[in-house]
Amino acid sequence: MLMPKRVKYRKPFSAPRIKGVAKRGATVSFGEYGLKALEPKWVTARQIEAARIVISRYAKKKGKMWTRVFPDKAITKHPAETRMGKGKGAPDHWVAVVKPGHILFEVEGLDLDTTKRAMRMASDKLPIKTKLVSRR
After folding, report:
1. Which residues contact 44 (CB under 8 A, 6 or more apart)?
2. 41 within some domain
3. Across the chain, what does the average pLDDT equal?
4. Which NCBIfam families match?
5. 38 in any annotated domain
6. How many distinct structural domains can be found in the chain?
7. Is there a domain that residue 8 lies in?
8. Long-range pairs for 3-7 at CB < 8 Å and ≥24 separation?
9. Residue 68 is part of which domain span?
10. Which residues does 134 contact at the CB level (< 8 Å), separation at least 6?
């Protein structure tokens, strides 16, 4: 699972909503095709990993893949059957804050049909609407 090696603060503030569009990471920089987010959402490390596995299965050894998102925000949670109060819960899982327009994954060295199938399968693993974009 993806997670930071170390963080400055263990329990960050959770922002009430994700505003605006992606300013950085909004263009296909490394590969030929990319999977672009169309809506704002938190994407968990498990979801990123599931999508990465699907794309790598399609790419096999002939293609190359880049993951352009990283879960660097800790989400805290109280244990089950715990009364309210008593401070903030312990870190439970990690999420990446994704804004509309952000490129999530990039691939290179695959034909268009294989890329479309791989990205569609990866998109099914993610909680957001996405679209396939090309460098050209």
Report:
1. 71, 93, 94, 95, 96
2. yes
3. 94
4. rplP_bact (TIGR01164)
5. yes
6. 1
7. no
8. 3/45, 3/71, 3/94, 4/70, 4/72, 4/94, 7/72, 7/74
9. 33-77+89-134
10. 28, 32, 33, 34
In the chain, what percentage of residues exceed pLDDT 90? 90
pLDDT tens digit sequence for 70-85: 999 999 999 999 999 9
- pLDDT band at residue 102 under the 50/70/90 scheme: very high
CA 23 – CA 14 distance, rounded (Å): 20
What pLDDT is recorded for position 9?
A: 92
Helix (H) or strand (E) holding 45, with range, is: helix 45-59
Residue 67 contacts residue 52 (beta carbons within 8 Å): yes
Answer yes or no: is pLDDT of 15 > 90. no
Q: Which of 43, 22, 40, 33 is nearest to 102 (CA)?
A: 22
The two structure tokens encoding residue 117: 């199938």
The residues with which 33 forms a beta bridge, in sequence order, are 107, 134
Q: Does any domain span residue 47?
A: yes
